[in-house]
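Anyone? Bumping this.
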Amino acid sequence: MAVYTEVSDEELARFIAGYDLGKLLSFKGIAEGVENTNYLLHTTAGTFILTIYEKRVDVADLPFFLGLMEHLSAHGVSCPLPVRDRRGNVLNELSKRHAALVTFLKGVWPKRPKADHCRELGSALARMHMAGRDFPLYRPNALGLSGWRPLFEKFASRAGEIDSGLGSLIQQELGFLEHAWPTDLPEGVIHADLFPDNVFFIDEKLSGIIDFYFACNDSLAYDIAVCLNAWCFDPDSEFEPSKGAALLQGYESVRPLSAKERQSMPTLARGAAMRFLLTRSYDWLNTPKDALVARKDPADYIRRLAFHQSAASIADYAPQLIS
Amino acid sequence: MAVYTEVSDEELARFIAGYDLGKLLSFKGIAEGVENTNYLLHTTAGTFILTIYEKRVDVADLPFFLGLMEHLSAHGVSCPLPVRDRRGNVLNELSKRHAALVTFLKGVWPKRPKADHCRELGSALARMHMAGRDFPLYRPNALGLSGWRPLFEKFASRAGEIDSGLGSLIQQELGFLEHAWPTDLPEGVIHADLFPDNVFFIDEKLSGIIDFYFACNDSLAYDIAVCLNAWCFDPDSEFEPSKGAALLQGYESVRPLSAKERQSMPTLARGAAMRFLLTRSYDWLNTPKDALVARKDPADYIRRLAFHQSAASIADYAPQLIS
């Protein structure tokens, strides 16, 4: 939620001259997004988002992210389309950082999603999974099962600063996940970070998906598990079954889950809660209190994890559906 | 440089329904402006800025600010035009704060203004002064001469934390200003905060002026003195005569200065430097280090003040002009 990289008049003029965009009409920093710097750019050719990649993004991954957005756009998914410059490149340089220009996507993200939003999300997620099937690049999930224990070890000795029982909770849960994690589920390209602020709506209809900077190859059902965590709990971290049911119904209206995927849902949801518990805990302990970025409380994910631990089957996420 | 007030989906929908704006298409927080929260809003009716007034703005002043923007717009000045809701009001409520919607103004502010920008600025400032002549409301300058000593007294005991000589420098300078401050100069509505980030350009042509939240009645020439401080020094706080000359030339091409105004320019410039030295010093000492707002270094204005103290006449601001 901050503009990190300032751009001089000359650098901006030079950057824009590299594209076929006409005249610059407006350029404003956007107070959203914590990983990169985003500017909203108006020119006589239209409205665009200019993203300047900050140090948390690995430059080697950018062709995957930008290529994926092009691929999904070409396959009917509404997402930002990278704009090619006069030489045909999508990746450029600005203010000594890597930068890209993408089309502006209309819509507003829901601060407090309702079940109808979750149904729309479910079907869009399934369509995205189908559209990604023949994307040729591959990127492992750095924040998947094999990444969790190394991340925990970076802050294990300080976990007690967050919550006295947190260290042993994570330790035990990692043991369970490493033992019980499902293999041989259908895999493909997943978004992996599909929180409400990455999904736009106009009039309750989903208008597009943004921010593919955690996208990777992993189990498709794990992406659903991320959404169950991100969309289907109330502000007190109580699970809301009507939203879980809507999400799963929406998804299955496009791509029905296999028996194995359905069986695995509680475990996948525990894994997704662990992934965000770990990154939030790490950031909590390592973000200076005077940083421009608001720290997110890890405790939300301790409560989500407890719910998933108590879930016996996918029916606990959608009680009104016959499972 | 931050979004302070978050707006819920329901509050935003209710607010927008009060206007004849069509369908909401996009709503993004802008990472600019330190006094208020600003959102960029797209609807099927156009593009707008939604401002939510934070506690530093006195609600009683809002009719002056909003009325002035309407008045200036109606008199040919390019500035944001407040939008009336279905009941004819420009001032509204949102998220328990006062809020207003204004038209979006195209253009980009110059990070590093050149002399040509200063010439454009000068003539636009003079046109704004002319257009404001028959504006019927009155607002004294709270940060004018009579406000400086009370503001200094709020932090005088801590001035040494910024610079060991700062307390006595301000003390002496206030004595001079209270003695030498010019009276009976032409008065009218002034912007009083016309820094580069409040002035937009397209292709080196001035496209509009924004942020009237310090506007008030005071000597017109004092507004020029603010601009000399804000536009005509390089990043090391060295005065740049080519910019000063361009600013004054541009201004006088529309409204020639009186002999008294020209004589008073060094004193007015000292006063303007004092005004920003005082507010920056106060903010420096009173802004928590972990605040979302970047603190601005008061030292820039110690150096500017020293230049103005050395200036013998308006010729020191525009040596190539015959004064």
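Late reply, but here is one note on the structure posted above: Chain A touches chain B at residues 1-3, 6-10, 12, 23-32, 40, 42, 104, 106-108, 110-112, 200, 202-203, 289-292 (CB under 8 Å).
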